Amino acid sequence: MKTPDAIAAAVAALRSGGVIAYPTEAVYGLGCDPSDEQAVARLFALKQRPPEHGVLLIAASFVQVEKYIGAAPAAAIARARATWPGPHTWVFPRSAATPSWLAGTHSGIALRVTAHAQAAELCRAFGGALVSTSANRHGAEPARSYAEVRAAFGGELAYILEGDTGGLVRPTPIRDAVSGAQLRI
User: Fold this and answer.
1) Where along the chain do its domains lie?
2) DSSP state letters, the chain
3) Over the chain, what is the mean pLDDT?
4) Which one, 4, 26, 33, 171, has least CB within 10 Å?
């Protein structure tokens, strides 16, 4: 399927409450509409991951994630924006507009403005941020290709967007936006 048609099919699956897979900077991600609690619950069930762990969101622009950011110093926002778009995930205090099912037991929300062209195109076409978590069962190695996603999930996903990952060897680093502390290398 050509990319514009594939993006349209992925967006249609998202809008109908589906969980999809798509390439990101290092691995394939599983994603869904962050405002759809049932879709997020399906995502956790597919991953066999406890919802207390929470998920991160990716977006094509800062505008798509700013509503999720609560009270954060201007320096924290500037720190993150200096690395975006790019393969950097930042945890911010979450706003009241952030649904609790996204953050799990955490007081913050992990956000990334992606530089991965296809993932960014997907977010633009969807019109907002998307849930993004590695495409794997909890504790298993993340899928790095369309074929690996198909092997891991078979027909359980609403759609798999075929494409190349960004070539990073490891998932994106995660840092605390307020303190700058490294949370995942």
Assistant:
1) 3-164
2) --HHHHHHHHHHHHHTT--EEEE-SSSEEEE--TT-HHHHHHHHHHHT--GGG--EEEESSGGGTGGGB-S--HHHHHHHHTT-SSS-EEEEEBPTTS-HHHHTT-SEEEEEE---HHHHHHHHHHTS-EEEEESSSTTSPPP-SHHHHHHHHTT-SSEE--------SSPPPEEETTT--EEE-
3) 94
4) 4
For the segment 11-43, what is each residue's pLDDT rounded down to a tens digit?
Answer: 999 999 999 999 999 999 999 999 999 999 999
Q: Which CATH number, 1.10.3720.10, 3.40.50.10800, 3.90.870.10, 1.10.760.10, labels domain 3-164? A: 3.90.870.10
pTM for the full model? 0.94
In angstroms, rounded to a whole number, what is the distance separating the alpha carbons of residues 171 and 184?
A: 9
Q: What is the DSSP string of 52-106?
A: GG--EEEESSGGGTGGGB-S--HHHHHHHHTT-SSS-EEEEEBPTTS-HHHHTT-
Token pair listed for 16: 């109908």
- Average pLDDT of the residues in 107-111: 95
Evaluate if residue 183 carries a pLDDT over 90: no
What's the N-to-C CA distance of the chain in angstroms?
35
**Type of residue numbered 165:** T
Radius of gyration (C-alpha) of the chain in whole angstroms:
15
